[in-house]
Amino acid sequence: IEKIKIHTSYMSDVITAVKGQAVVFSEEQVYPFNMSTLFKQVEILMRHELKNSITKLSIIDQTTENDLIYGNINSLVQILNNMISNAIQAYGKTEKEMQIDLKAIVKDKNIIISVHDFGPGLPEHVKNKLFKEMITTKGKDGTGLGLFMSYSNIRAHFHGNITFDTSEKGTTFFITLPIYKK
Questions:
Q1: In the sheet that 98-107 helps form, which strands lie side by side, from edge to edge?
Q2: What span, in angstroms and rounded, lies between the C-alpha atoms of 174 and 3?
Q3: Considering only CA atoms, which of 31, 78, 32, 71 is closest in space to residue 156?
Q4: DSSP states of 76-109 as a string?
Q5: Which residue did the predictor score with more confidence, 173 or 139?
Q6: What is the dihedral of CA 72, 98, 146, 27, to 10 degrees?
Q7: Positive/negative CA dihedral, 64, 69, 75, 79
Q8: Which of 113, 116, 127, 181 has CB 3.0 to 4.6 Å from 175, enough for a Cys bridge?
Q9: Which candidate, 63, 78, 11, places its Cα nearest to that of 33?
Q10: Phi, psi of 24 (to 5 degrees)
C-alpha cells in the first residue's frame, strides 16, 4: 500500500505537469513564477528520461521565493527539458552514471539559469552557428529545432538571452531572464 501511495502521488504530479504543458498556445497563460516551482515541474517531467539514461540531475536553486520571472512557465519548462535532453545525448553511449547540473542564481537584476553537462563539448563547426540557424550535432536523429526555438522563445517572450560556454570538459548553457518587478 505504501508503494502504491508513492506511485499514485508521482502519477498525479506527472498528470498535473503534463496538463500544464498541453495549454493551447493561443490561450497562452503568462504570470509571475519562481524557480522552485519551475524546477519542480522540470524534475517531474524529466524523471523517467533521467532514470533510463542513468543520469543524476543536481538542482541548485540560489534564488528566493520572491525572485520571480514573468511569462509562461510551461514554455520555460519545455526549454529546460530540451536542454537537459541535449545534455544527456551529449555524453554519447556510456554505461557509467552521468551528471547534469541545473542551477539558478540572481545576478544584478536577472535570474541566470544554467544547464551544465560534463560531456565532450560542442564541435567547432557548431559553435558559431548555434543560435543563428537550425543546426544539430545528432545527424539524422536531430532536427536542429530545439535550441533555435528555445533561443527565439527566450528572446521574444521572456526578453532574455541564451549564451553558452563549451570545452572538452563540458558545456554550459546560460539563460538570463529579467527579474519580475511587481
A1: 55-61, 98-107, 110-117, 170-178, 161-167
A2: 38
A3: 71
A4: HHHHHHHHHHHHHHHT-S-SSPEEEEEEEEEETT
A5: 173
A6: -20
A7: negative
A8: 113
A9: 63
A10: -70, 130
| Per-residue model confidence (pLDDT) at position 126 | 75
Q: The dihedral of CA 51, 53, 54, 56: what is its sign?
A: negative
Phi, psi of 146 (to 5 degrees): -55, -60
* Cα(150)–Cα(58) distance, integer angstroms: 22
Residue 2: half-sphere exposure toward Cβ, Cα within 13 Å: 0
- Quote the pTM value: 0.80
Task: Name the residue with cell 502504491.
Answer: 4
Q: How confident is the model at residue 97 (pLDDT cuts 50, 70, 90)?
A: confident
Q: How far is CA 175 from CA 29, 95, 146, in A?
A: 21, 30, 14
Per-residue pLDDT tens digits for 11-49: 776 666 555 544 444 346 889 999 999 999 999 999 999
Kind of pairing, strands 161-167 and 170-178?
antiparallel
Distance CA 107, CA 128 (A): 26
